[in-house]
Fold this protein.
Amino acid sequence: MNRVLSVAEERFPIAGTFTISRGSKTEAEVITCTISADGHNGRGECVPYKRYGETLEGVRSEIEAISDAITSGIGRNQLMGLMKPGAARNALDCALWDLDAKQSGIRVADRLGLKSPSALETAFTLSMSTPEAMAVQALENRMRPLLKVKIGGEGDMERIRAVRSAAPDSRLILDANEGWNEDNIAENLTVAAELGVALIEQPLPAGGDAILAEIPRPVPICADESVHTVDGLDKLVGRYDAINIKLDKAGGLTAALDLRDRALELGFSIMVGCMVGTSLAMAPAVLLAQGAEFVDLDGPLLLARDRQPGLVYRGSMVSPPDPALWG
């Protein structure tokens, strides 16, 4: 099998500034892999994440280091054993899924047993800021059914109250990005419950979340940074009610499917999330998210410019990918 691998670093401007508890960014920095064979091109996109020690240069080096194996024809299952979980493996795995679909004429949705994947309701993310500024964001998006609110610092309760006041009918997900601690979590959970919050993502630092098994959880808690793959998932039982599956953490669609299936066996609810990337990064996640309780695949909605063709968003509904994009 004669394959050619190409790797590109790309940047897409964000509409404004995207801020979480760990910092701000004005553009999405992504790595795009293209695996070509027999006149067909399979593509995959990943977003290196500094939280996990990833950089554009480092991820590119990881991908290029396995170039010979890719061009010699290894499959997705072999890839899982050759690379560690993370952004680099994600881009390659998704490119292999796409290439297989292009070569075989069998769409990824069909491979997954999805006869007619449906459009999904995605959360829309409000960037962390002052309560007043977040109220403005919430007011502008109050017609969206599901809002994800970035918090994780001093004044969080004021932020939550401001958003709830401005968007009284929206369901709310709070994403603290490990920004709470053992001293304030009980009070914060109480206020969140009073305000009708639907879910709270990763309130405590990964590895410092044992208290979640000991305190009341009046709002369901979702693991994000605390879960990457099936390894160690069973240890989260009793601490978390849901898990957030991201392709860049799991290291591709192949590993993410295994994680989803095992999580369901253990009784977790499923959220499928994303980094800030383009429609190419979201496309496989839309298929993974079929049947998920929470979907957070709004990356392209936060960009000033997306790929063309991209996913089709109508309000907060995102449609499955067209083959011209992926899969």
Notes: The chain has eleven helices and 14 strands. The chain has a mean pLDDT of 95. The first strand starts at residue 3 and ends at 20. The radius of gyration is 19 Å.
